Here is the input.
Amino acid sequence: MRELESSREILVTQKKEMFEAFTGFETQNNYVVQLQGGQALYAAEVNTGFLSRNFLQQLRPFELVVADGQRNTRLRVKRPFRFMFHEITVMNGHGMVLGRVVKKFTFVNRLYEVKDGDNRTLFELKGPLFKPWTFRIENALGNVGVITKKWSGLFKEAMTDADNFGLNLERDLPATQKAVLLGAVFLIDFVHFENNTGNGIGIDG
Here is the structure.
């Protein structure tokens, strides 16, 4: 995933259609992933049916395809149906597993484990209860970075559930690990911000 090699700051912007804004019917999620240096990737939810989107909503299984400007698939992010303990698998464009992100049970704060392709834990994502828009990225050495939901404008916040997220790293990481953290951004969006009123709580099972 060479596009991610030199990026320690990544902005993920969800794109919503006007149809959803005015009807309330959930459309498939689409994102623009902006990297340092001006490069961009494009992520699209594929093969998700109308009933799944509108009845399962943020619980729905999905596959996201992340492609470059020439429509070459760079990553695939797959999520099975889970009522609790949500998870995703991140693969490269050839189907090789790069890692997984798994939500862990907690009573108060929100906690995810980020694993590599061999199922070894790389990081924990910790979302403090009273900072619902913030997830700290930590490992045994301390803080690595943060994922934050950013303000997306009054009209977007009022009319849709479209979100902007920043992934900011304090130090460089291998591109494969950045790819899995990018997958974590998509999972966090679905679980905590897909269908709510902006409080970041969502269904936390």
